[in-house]
Amino acid sequence: MVWLICEDQSLFFPQYGDSTVALPHLESLAEDGTIFEHMFSVSPVCAPSRSSLLTGVLPTRMGTHHMRAYQKREGLNPHTGLPFYSAPMPDGVRAFTEHMREAGVHCTNRGKEDYNFQTPPLAWDVSSRSAHWRSRPEGAPFFSVFNLFGSHESRVWERGNTAGGPTPDAVPVPPILPDLPDVRQDLAVNYGNLLVIDSLVGNVIQELKEDGLYDQTTILFSSDHGGPFPGFKRSASDAGLHVPLIIKWAEGVPHSERNDGLFSFLDLAPTALSHFRLPIPAALPGTPITPDAEGHPAVFGAADRFDSELTRQRTVRTQRWRMTRNHMPNPSLRLDIPYRRQMATMHAIDSLSGAGVEPWTTWALGDAPELELYDLSLDPWQLNNLAGQAAYAGLVDSLDALLNEVFAPNLDWGWVPESDMIVQFGSIGAP
User: Fold this and answer.
1) Would residue 431 count as lying in a domain?
2) What CATH number does the domain containing 288 carry?
3) What whole-number distance in Å separates Cα of residue 233 and Cα of residue 306?
């Protein structure tokens, strides 16, 4: 099994109806597999999201929900003044690859860890920039992750237009972004970055074919969370959490072209374990993704501290509805993060808000509503908040019950101040 995980991408792909750029290698995977319509990350930022990739549990349950809580060095976090820390695994939870390695599966990870906790020493046979299934003992089964960095947020402002990429006037502008030249330029660069990603996917496909392994290998392609733009990344919304999922199955596996079920990153660890016919630990809430899997009635996500900006959003997504509770009065989109301000799109939005142009002034300066409810069948970009309408009171109550169950205080470290959380973890002591 091979996982191909790109960074910071929503549904900017031909397989999801966006024909801005052709991505032939991803198209070949789709032709041999299944396109999953509704796959969701559990966090709209990388390190918390990746903690769930390795463990199969929500970051809020592990204490990995704050962005950049752990780094491979001692000292104080400049964003918080608190020590860096590594959250311990909850009872019954391990890196899922540890189970596979014990069963003789050769596990490799290329390019990035960034799990927001110290990587368990037994998680990987090889984890490096050159890790590859070719390091396995002859004939051994393998699980290889390739992290594709070419579409990261930073690549939008670090790169110019990619050869073969679209011109700014040819890109669609999502309605949650202003249609301005700088925004179009950033969007064009991002589409060009997808061409880079597609070429990296092609390299892996070619190597599998060279080794005579392509037909028999299951290949999974996804992104760690939604797109790199304001209103996407760091937002507990569909734009921030809805990601592509394409699975190319091993030859001979019956499958449909598309699957409309609801799935979550919590399903990926069970999927890998099931692929190798290994038992799924009782502590993991997810279920294996198979060609005919029906998915879940609802999936969940959360957003907490981003660098120095503290927020707490808890969200539930069903086939038709998304409801989000904002537990702190932060703007849900405009977070004052220096890293984000390197993007021209952010400067363009700030100029509009500074000039009093709506909705950008409210977006930048207004508090997020305590409750948000959206009918995604009619309002996929979440522009019309229905939470205050009496007609939806019963729906709000039922979705709120789901949130309260999944994010109950005894299951959600987000209710504990970070300084107290570090003390309770006991790995560092009182700051």
Assistant:
1) no
2) 3.40.720.10
3) 11
User: Do 241 and 40 touch, CB atoms closer than 8 A?
Assistant: yes
What distance lies between CA 272 and its chain's CA centroid?
17
Query: Which pLDDT score is estimated for 363?
Result: 84
Average pLDDT over residues 360-372: 87
Whole-prediction pTM: 0.95
The neighbour count for residue 84, using CB atoms within 10 Å, is 17
CA distances for 157 relative to 230, 290, 343, angstroms = 13, 38, 6
Q: In this structure, are residues 163 and 136 in contact, taking their beta carbons and an 8 Å threshold?
A: no
Residues classed as catalytic = 46
Domain membership of residue 367 as a residue range: 2-425
Cα–Cα distance between 182 and 188 in angstroms, integer?
10
**Over residues 407-416, mean pLDDT:** 96
The whole-number pLDDT of residue 12 equals: 97
pLDDT at 121 over 80: yes
Cα 33–chain centre separation = 21
> Taking residues 109-118, what's their average pLDDT?
94
Phi, psi values for residue 156, rounded to 5°: -70, -40
